[in-house]
């Protein structure tokens, strides 16, 4: 992103005396004329001095801007990310970090999934038999800027004594695993990184926390696939109603999310008829069942409850809050039975860059009274039909065109998050060439 300030300096002070010549016999020198000439020269000299002083002043300001205050330069230019918060659509000035395309980069991936004990086996596609590795060699490139390369040492120091919390579904867990694996590449003593309760990563556990002992910080994951409470239905409802989502009550583990420094939310993959109504799960609000409520209306209501909770319970002067939009899948049919994983990103999104859930997230966040950054990853994922787990999971008989391989797409989500955090806090990570 370029920010250019133009200063156009103009000067007018030309004096003309027609008909006068130093060699003319009609020209007679006099004390008065000589005094006028000396006065004019004196004023001209003063004007020149003032102009020179002004030019020197602005030159000094320019030098100080780029050399004495490098963090300020980063904060303004920011390589497309720097600002106290990204604008409501994820953009900064003329640069939008989430509008761009994937470019091949042989320096990727940034870590080896088999060397990271916190990378879930089901997401380690290479270890599960995938032969091609081209899907690992891509980097997201915004149209008008670059995302700074993940500065592991700088981020480890930045997180010293802090708490990073992810809240959401399995997509959130994937991003959580990705961040831990990225950070572990900068840790010399790998044994100093451990799960706080000694738990192994499983799909159903509600809490996982990994502590980086040397740097005294934790990266935590809370499983809350809907963000709101799920419980028994009210009395006198049809038998098909087995449980309800209480759209006006945030998940009862939400109290655990408050005291954090970075808080990253997502929800969306479970808001489908097959995981709601076909399972006997319906909506409830105000203690009353809402059996005819459309899913998108329920989603909007739940997010309004979440937004109210953030506004009243989270100290956004301390906690940086993010919400990630919907991550598109690439199923070949509506019943999620067929999945074609390509070897390279596709060139057309085929409508997968749009999602009603992503639109609702933007609508809700844009109406909030506190700063929340939207991670608009829907377009980014729409191109990546090559990066899904497919048949390369720990259960190859179960095809998967929703989740992402690790290393993979979630790494870029984390690169964007921390380039933003480092920029606004005055860090200067190295820019990608």
- Could you list the spans in which at least 5 consecutive residues all have pLDDT below 50? 1-38, 64-93, 427-433
Strand content: 15-25%
Element-level helix/strand string: HHEEEEHEHEEEEEEEEHEHEHEEH
- Global mean pLDDT: 83
How many separate structural domains?
1
Distance between the termini: 14 Å
**Would you count the extended β strands for me?**
17
**What is the helix tally?**
8
Radius of gyration: 30 Å
Largest sheet: 7 strands, mixed
Which percent bin holds the helix content? 25-40%
**Strands in their spatial order, largest beta sheet:** 6-7-8-5-11-14-15
What would you call the structural class? alpha/beta
| Shape category | globular
GO molecular function: O-acetyltransferase activity
Membrane topology: Single-pass membrane protein
Family: Belongs to the PC-esterase family. TBL subfamily.
Subcellular location: Membrane
Provide a short characterization of the protein structure.
This protein is 27% helix and 18% strand.
How would you describe the overall organization of this protein?
The chain has 433 residues and is an alpha/beta fold. The chain has one domain. Helix content is 27%, strand content 18%. It is built from eight helices and 17 strands. The protein has helices at 31-68, 70-77, 152-158, 170-184, 295-313, 356-366, 378-382, 409-424; strands spanning 91-92, 95-96, 100-104, 138-142, 163-168, 193-195, 207-212, 217-223, 228-231, 243-250, 262-265, 281-285, 288-290, 320-324, 373-375, 388-390, 400-404. It has a seven-stranded mixed β-sheet, with helices on both faces. A four-stranded mixed β-sheet has the order 9-10-12-13. Helix 6 (356-366) links the parallel strand 14 and strand 15. The chain is globular. The model is unreliable at 1-38, 64-93 and 427-433 (pLDDT under 50). It is a single-pass membrane protein. Residues 94-146 form the Trichome birefringence-like N-terminal domain. It comes from Coptis chinensis. InterPro entries: TBL, TBL_C, TBL_N. The chain crosses the membrane at residues 47-68.
């Amino acid at each position: 992103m370029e920010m250019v300030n133009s200063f156009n300096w103009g000067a007018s002070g030309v004096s003309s005396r027609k008909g006068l010549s130093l060699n003319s016999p009609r020209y007679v020198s006099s004390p008065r004329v000589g005094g006028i000439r000396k006065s004019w020269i004196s004023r001209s000299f003063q004007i020149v001095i003032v102009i020179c002083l002004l030019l020197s002043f602005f030159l000094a300001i320019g030098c100080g801007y780029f050399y004495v205050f490098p963090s300020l330069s980063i904060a303004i230019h920011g390589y497309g990310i720097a600002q106290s918060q990204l604008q409501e659509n994820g953009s900064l000035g003329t640069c939008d970090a989430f509008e761009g395309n994937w470019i091949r980069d042989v320096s990727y991936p940034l870590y080896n999934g088999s060397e990271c004990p916190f990378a879930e086996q089901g997401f380690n596609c290479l270890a599960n038999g995938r032969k091609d590795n081209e899907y690992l060699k891509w980097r997201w490139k915004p149209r008008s800027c670059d995302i700074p390369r993940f500065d592991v040492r700088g981020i480890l120091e930045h997180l010293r004594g802090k708490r990073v919390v992810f809240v959401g579904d399995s997509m959130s867990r994937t991003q959580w695993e990705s961040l831990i694996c990225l950070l572990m590449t900068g840790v010399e003593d790998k044994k100093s990184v451990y799960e706080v309760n000694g738990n192994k990563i499983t799909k159903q556990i509600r809490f996982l926390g990994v502590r980086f002992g040397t740097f005294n910080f934790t990266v935590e994951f809370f499983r809350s696939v809907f963000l709101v409470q799920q419980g028994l239905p009210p009395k006198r409802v049809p038998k098909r109603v087995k449980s309800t989502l209480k759209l006006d009550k945030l998940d009862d583990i939400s109290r655990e999310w408050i005291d954090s420094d970075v808080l990253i939310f997502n929800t969306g993959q479970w808001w489908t008829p097959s995981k709601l109504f076909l399972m006997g799960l319906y909506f409830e609000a105000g203690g009353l069942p809402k059996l005819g409520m459309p899913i998108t209306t329920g989603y909007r209501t739940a997010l309004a409850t979440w937004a109210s909770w953030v506004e009243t319970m989270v100290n956004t002067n301390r906690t940086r809050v993010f919400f990630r939009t919907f991550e598109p899948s690439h199923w070949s049919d509506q019943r999620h039975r067929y999945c074609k994983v390509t070897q390279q990103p596709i060139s057309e999104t085929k409508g997968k860059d749009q999602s009603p859930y992503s639109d609702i997230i933007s609508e809700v966040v844009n109406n909030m009274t506190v700063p929340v950054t939207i991670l608009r990853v829907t377009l980014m994922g729409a191109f990546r039909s090559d990066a899904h787990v497919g048949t390369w999971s720990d259960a190859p008989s179960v095809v998967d065109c929703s989740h992402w391989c690790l290393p993979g797409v979630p790494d870029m989500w984390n690169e964007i998050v921390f380039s933003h955090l480092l920029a606004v806090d005055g860090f200067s990570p190295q820019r990608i060439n």
